[in-house]
Amino acid sequence: MSDHVRDHVRPDVRGDVREHVRVAVIGSGFGGLGAAVRLRREGITDFVVLERSDAVGGTWRDNSYPGCACDVPSHLYSFSFAPNPDWPRTFSGQPHIRAYLEHVTDTFGLRPHLRLNHEVLSARWDAGALRWEIATSRGALTADVVVSATGPLSDPRIPDVPGLDGFREAGGKVFHSARWDHDYDLTGKRVAMIGTGASAIQIVPAIQPKTSRLTLFQRTPPWVMPRVDRAVTGAERWLHRQLPFTGKARRGLLWGIRELQVGAFTKRPEALGLVEALARANMHRAIKDPALRARLTPAYRIGCKRILLSNDYYPALARPNVDVVAAGLAEVRGRTAVGADGSEAEVDAIVFGTGFHVTDMPIADRVVGADGVTLAEAWKDGMEALRGATAAGFPNWMTIIGPNTGLGNSSMILMIESQLNYLADYMRRLDLLGEGRALTPRPAAVAAWNRRVQARMERTVWKSGGCDSWYLDANGRNTTLWPGTTSEFRRETRSVDLGEYEIVRAPGGSAAPGGTASSGEPAATGHGAAPGGTASSGRAASSGGAASREGAAA
After folding, report:
1. Which residue among 188, 199, 303, 460 is least crowded, i.e. fewest CB within 10 A of its CB?
2. pTM listed for this prediction
3. For residues 549 and 441, what is the distance between their CA atoms, to the nearest angstrom?
4. What is the CA radius of gyration of the chain?
5. How do residues 180-199 score in pLDDT, each as one tens digit?
């Protein structure tokens, strides 16, 4: 595909002059940088990466709390097109992963495309011009296509706890794990840790030796397995540098093992009994107090919540300066943290490890589609996207790590790369359609895809395991995870099926009579098109015209 040669500054319908790009990518974590690399590989250089912070890295930039590390092996938690033979550990820490993303940025020449400190305030579809109008904290621009790669772990969630403001006024310190205050010294402090997720089990052993008293408010105990982590030897790194196929083989082995595990999570949860026994044994080795052991034993099937990995979490909880409250934080009275069970603890600092806005991503409130509704409004009954990528009513908009693309046991980089394949084919299809065309998924196709996903979800451990997890939305639907293998998902996203899409045309470009578009492409029938093979959106375009929609050839 040849480069898109176009003017970067265009007047809009009001005569304003704004930068225009072929593609605007939102976010510079793994998803955003991966999209940028793939666009360049497709010959598309007319794009920008809009990043609200002052550096790339996404969640691996924001999460810098003590002990922060990945629970996926390093050689699998990296791009297949950018292998790193020099990972220092089998499970790498946050500094090494962030450095890897900086390396990817430089290696693939992405710096000129970056717009740092450009937080996206709104993105609105202009039906008359067939483009997205984007407002950022540093100005406005327009784009033919928007790729939203903000990720589900980008906006921290702090519960509305009564008395929290009073605690701050009384001199108490409050912060979220993803916004760690490195200027605040926890040495000798009385600290309340709220939550027992993946971040908390890393933070607790890292800060426990410093604190005078650490109180863990645990709403639900996690299942914790040993973390088989070690330093990668110099000989191993030399081998991977000199013989790159050895690194690929290592990655392939790690991938294959996890592919074989998927069936237990998605079809045979009862097969996880042995894993549960191993997790119990892991706890029993470190926790000798029967009462504490009882508080730390989950009452749900292992795998229903994410299985956590740690060698030092349980030993830290057994230390004399640690208290485990088997209840969530209910309120704060002055400097006293009060649990839902009435337990009280005098604290100097409260650290929230309470996760993120996953099923209610804030970016959805800022994206306005063709019908004038926000993505959040369109998803009010639950997130839905065709093949985890495109949403009905939002032309030329795609999300990376969208609904039902998450994983419970493997590397999200595998899913991201599959979505990049879909993005690449999407851009090819747009090029073939030519100027004045956009693509929007048919509502029926989106609904059919999500019915299929949710039907498969019913037999998974995430729905039948007896827990309430962050995988579930307010309606109890799992709109977060993919109920299959990564290889299945790759097959499903290898290419764009135009039969699942409608072609949106600019005003004045309506389809010709007899079911054939004026450009010569056939209009699909039997997919909800109006008589004659065309479907009119009936929307008023911002320029005063009306965009029309025609069926895409299957």
Report:
1. 188
2. 0.88
3. 11
4. 25
5. 999 999 999 999 999 999 99
Residue type, 538: G
CA-nearest of 346, 331, 452, 335 to 403 is 452
At residue 461, φ and ψ (nearest 5 deg) are -65, -25
Q: What is the DSSP letter of 498?
A: G
Question: Considering the domain 18-153+356-503 in this protein, what is its CATH number?
Answer: 3.50.50.60
256 contact partners, CB below 8 Å, separation of at least 6: none
Q: For the chain, how long is the longest CA-to-CA vector?
A: 81
Task: State how far the Cα of 205 lies from the Cα of 69, in Å rounded to an integer.
Answer: 13
Helix ranges restricted to H, 267-338: 273-286, 290-296, 313-317
* C-alpha count within 13 angstroms, C-beta hemisphere, residue 219: 17
Residue among 337, 301, 353 nearest 172 (CA): 337
Question: Where does CATH 3.50.50.60 sit in the chain?
Answer: 18-153+356-503, 162-221+304-350
Summarised one tens digit per residue, pLDDT across range 225-247 is: 999 999 999 999 999 999 999 99
* SS percent in the chain: helix, strand, coil, step 5: 30, 20, 45
The dihedral built from the CA positions of residue 61, 67, 71 and 73, taken in this order, carries a sign that is positive
Contact call for residues 179 and 158 (beta carbons, < 8 A): no
Quick one: which of 31, 25, 30 has its CA closest to 51?
25
The CATH architecture that domain 162-221+304-350 belongs to is 3-Layer(bba) Sandwich (3.50)
Residues, the chain: 554
**86: nearest Cα among 100, 71, 104:** 100
